[in-house]
């Protein structure tokens, strides 16, 4: 058999595997284009440490939280979004580091939960916003977590609202594929306590998961890495059985060091988790939520607003009490 024919036969034999595992819409791997993850110099934890150098909690919060790579969240508070994402990714690129960004501005955001309600004024406003978000990143390497909560809870939504939301997410993925070729986008898939694996696989697929690099789990939650990994594998089993492909997934480990006590909104006694490049069957374990930032006016964060940095909560989370 000629070398050319052998090469052709090998390629043909590999085709079913390529269709079964569709890990990315892009050829580029941003993790290989950089020398580690970017530490946000303007995170809420870092700002608090800088403003309170004499506080007895500052050293621990600085060492254990503020200097750990974690995501920056972008929404209506970010100003001109293309400028904001461009500046953030550009700063990381200058340091040869990989930035982690969260897009959190979908129309009717947190529609059923309410603690983080808001978002763009309309589906068309969101389409414009996310197009500028992707354009700001452009060709520089980045990782984006797309719209936490968006697929987790449909309980109070009509079918028309669900269709509208899924169309917005599909449109967002189209923009990243068009404008940000070196970005891995993970569609948020909630957590194991929100929807069963078959339901989440269907929601992901209908919202355009084929276009994404993968999906994210446990964002802003406390559930163990092991439980999330089992759930992610179950979602992939459903994707493979129903639609003929699988996707990598990442787990937010920022606050799951003690697991969950069944409460999702500022529970007491939680602990930071350990971020790493890979682990436990997930593609990456990442800090997506900043430890110490409030989930809303609830639990040990009573009186706070979602996203507000609470130093006492952060301090206790370092030690797990």
UniProtKB/TrEMBL annotation:
The keyword Transcription regulation does not apply. Residues 1-27 form the signal peptide. The active site is at 149 (proton donor). The keyword NADP does not apply. Keywords: Carbohydrate metabolism, Cellulose degradation, Disulfide bond, Glycosidase, Hydrolase, Polysaccharide degradation, Signal. InterPro entries: Beta_cellobiohydrolase, Beta_cellobiohydrolase_sf, Glyco_hydro_6_CS. GO terms for molecular function: hydrolase activity. Its EC number is 3.2.1.-. Pfam families: Glyco_hydro_6. It is an enzyme of class 3 (hydrolase). Belongs to the glycosyl hydrolase family 6. This is Glucanase. It comes from Streptomyces tunisiensis.
